[in-house]
Every structure is written in C-alpha cells, then in structure tokens.
Amino acid sequence: DLAALGQGGGVDPGMQPYVVQYGDVLSVIAQEQGLDLDCLIEANALSRPGELRPGQTLLLPDRCRLIAADG
Q: 54 CB contacts (<8 Å, ≥6 apart)?
C-alpha cells in the first residue's frame, strides 16, 4: 500500500520497505527479518494479516526489531 509510504514519496529512515512476493507469509517475513510479529501488524495497520497480496508494500520498522539475548 503506497499510502503507507507517506505523501512525500520517501520512507521514514527507521522504516524499511518490503514488497510482498507470491507465497509470502507475514509470520515468516517477521521471523526472517528479526521483527516482532504483533509490532509489524500494528505498524502496517493490517486488519487481515493473513491476506497479503503480491506487490503490497509493507514497512519494516526498526522499533519492531527483536533484541537477541546474550548468552
């Protein structure tokens, strides 16, 4: 959804755009990108997170990054 990218056409520096590909699943995207799934859903205002569309643009916010435990 290009509206999520902002009216200036730019992306917030703390947001990485991700274009959904056929077969993508939000939970897998979150896991592969090291993001909290609930945060990702909220950041993209996804009312139906299970219904991604190829070509849809998601924003991957830095604030949703999971912090790896030291150990």
A: 20, 21, 22, 24
